[in-house]
Amino acid sequence: MGRVQTSALRMFGKRRCARTFCALLLLLVVKAGAEDFTYINNNGAITVTGYTGPGGNVTVPGTIVGLPVTSLDHSFYALSTVTSVTIPPGVTNIAAYTFWACTGLTNITLPDGLTTIGDAAFWECTGLTEIHIPQSVTNIGQQAFGQSTSLTAITVDPLNAWYASPDGVLFDKNQRVLIQFPSGKAGPYALPAGVTSIGDYAFWWSTALTGVTLPEGVTNIGVDAFGGCTSLATVTTPSSLTRIADSAFWGCTQLTGVVLPNSVASLGSSAFFGCASLQSITIPSNISVVGDFAFSACTGLKSVSLQNNVLGVAEFSGCTNLTGITIPDGITVIPDRAFEHTGLTNLILSSNVTRIGEFSFAECSSLTNVVLPDSLTEIGGAAFGFCTALGSVRIPDRVTTIGNGYIGKGVEGTFSACTSLTNVVLGKSLRSMGSAAFFNCPGLRSMVIPKSVTSIAEFCFGYSTNLTALYFEGDAPTVSDAFIVLSQGDPTIAYYLPGTQGWGATFASQPTAWWVLPNPVLLNTRAALTVQSNGVSLAVSWATNSSVVLEACTSLVNPTWQTVDAKPLSGGTAGFRDSQWTNYPARFYRVRGL
User: Fold this and answer.
1) How far apart are CA 594 and CA 567, in angstroms?
2) Fewer CB atoms inside 10 Å of the end CB: C or N, the chain?
3) Nearest CA-CA partner of 223 in 239, 207, 203, 252
């Protein structure tokens, strides 16, 4: 009896040891799996933050250290060795970038109970061909599956209350907003009727997409919606479209044409940036907002019809084949860099333009002719810099400022490096000539500076190596000593009229001389024109020792000129006095050579 009991006890002990060993073995397996992950404890729930295992087929454990795994956060970030991942029930959140750039991932199993897929969670998973969204998912972030270039289908459980997937494309449940087009889906695509909006990044980097047709009712194309769609050649837009957001068609290098309907009111920054095959574009009249760089780097663009009254900053910058443009009368400002580095050959601005911004026409190396309107009041720094074919320019009389240029590792001024520029006529209201305005203009030999100019900034004429004469009509302006000091070759002589103020033997380190005019001139500075009780005194300037006659009349309508006085000019100037001027209701004067 005892032996039997002993035998029974032994058998019980073996079974108990076996159970204990199995439990220990199971514990070791779980522990070994857990050791392949890094994690944090959030109030009793585990968030997996990394995977350190060998890769291949990976199953995320349901518990770690006895606590439930509920979230993945950057867990497999940029791990190319992982080929398959099974996520256990209980995980409700896949955070942003969790599977970012898992280029070896070909299969993913998402659990029932999952509610959130974060921004770019599966970004650039280039081996992933399809993904199934469970019924429980309520939130999918931007670009959750972006640039996964082999992905051809996103399927949503039909019972999901938030999302739908007709034809493998991710929409909201009501199919009003297209959220995500699978990046690997090829050929043309026509959106279903009822869609009203293309979401931000919806088609981003869908490199196999060749054409798209947007149905009537679509009003919005979101940010970067078609960005990087390098095979997209045709886009059909509806008459309902009102907004094209920033970078909407950025980098669509095969897009040859697009019609912007009259309904469009807003065109975002870089909307068509880098669409190198785009040949022509019409900007409709209703567009009132144009973002920066809207058509920049559209190197194939040859024809632009502007029908609206606003331009964007750098709107056509880098459109090297754009040779002509007509500016509508409603446009009053040419923004900074608007036509920088384009192929323009002839520029005639509308009669209402008041300001030309910085770099607006810089590096237009084919530009030979510029007609600036009388309405213009300001020209920005480097506006025509490096226009190497430009031969002449007339600055209108209302322009008060030629803007400051940029002096650093390089020098860029309003007309800097206009190497063919030989003739410049400055307007009568110009007060300020900005830094480096005519820097490195070797074709310039002389220039007349109006009496209205009060300041000339540094390097204004620097390295304009053939500039030998500046003719000043008024008093000496304030000037930096460096305004011309970098010129090489003969000195630049500053010629001034007798009777004007502020001149000495040198001007900004350059020699000065009297300006001998081809005809006598009445000087009307305060020092040269005075009214006294015994008559009006006037000063005349001309060549030294030449004789001049001062004449007067009472009306400029069929005038009868009478001689007031005649005398030689000693030292290039002489004073005249008319004691009879008070005997007439009006008195006009002129001078002529004797």
Assistant:
1) 9
2) N
3) 203
Structure token digits, residue 572: 């290039």
Q: How far apart are CA 345 and CA 324, in angstroms?
A: 7
Q: Cβ neighbours of residue 558 under 8 Å, at least 6 residues apart?
A: none
Is pLDDT above 90 for 587? no
Token reading at 21: 């060993």
pTM higher than 0.85: no
Pairing mode of beta strands 478-479, 506-507 = unpaired
Torsions phi, psi of 406, nearest 5? -125, 125
Tell me, what's the pLDDT at 3?
34
Other beta carbons less than 10 A from residue 77's beta carbon: 15
Neighbouring C-beta atoms of residue 206, cutoff 10 Å: 28
Opening angle at CA 292, ends 288 and 295, nearest 5: 90
Sequence-ordered strand ranges (E) for 161-238: 163-164, 170-172, 177-180, 187-190, 197-198, 209-213, 220-221, 234-236
Out of 3.40.50.300, 3.30.420.40, 3.40.50.720, 3.80.10.10, select the CATH number for domain 337-515. 3.80.10.10
Whether 541 has a pLDDT exceeding 90, the answer reads: no
CA distance 281 to 443: 37
- Counting other chains too, the contacts that 468-474 makes at CB distance below 8 Å and 24 or more residues apart are 468/492, 468/493, 469/445, 469/493, 469/495, 470/446, 470/494, 470/495, 471/446, 471/447, 471/495, 471/515, 472/496, 472/497, 472/500, 472/515, 473/448, 473/449, 473/497, 473/500, 474/449, 474/450, 474/500, 474/525
Q: Are 551 and 592 in contact (CB under 8 A)?
A: yes
Give the C-alpha separation, 439 to 382, whole Å.
10
Tell me, which fold does domain 35-185 have in CATH?
3.80.10
Q: Find how far residue 232's CA is from the centre of its chain.
A: 24
Q: What is the mean pLDDT of residues 107-117?
A: 97
> What CA–CA distance (Å, rounded) separates 589 from 565?
11
Asked whether the beta carbons of 435 and 460 are under 8 A apart, the reply is yes
- Pairwise CA distance, residues 322 & 304, whole Å: 8
Asked if 422 contacts 401 with a C-beta cutoff of 8 angstroms, the reply is no
- Per the prediction, the chain carries an average pLDDT of 89
DSSP 257: B
Q: Computed from CA positions of residues 407, 410, 411, 412, in that sequence, does the dihedral angle turn out positive or negative?
A: negative
Q: What does the DSSP 8-state code read for residue 582?
A: G
Q: Max CA-CA distance within the chain? A: 162
- Nearest Cα neighbor of 565 from 537, 532, 525, 544 is 537
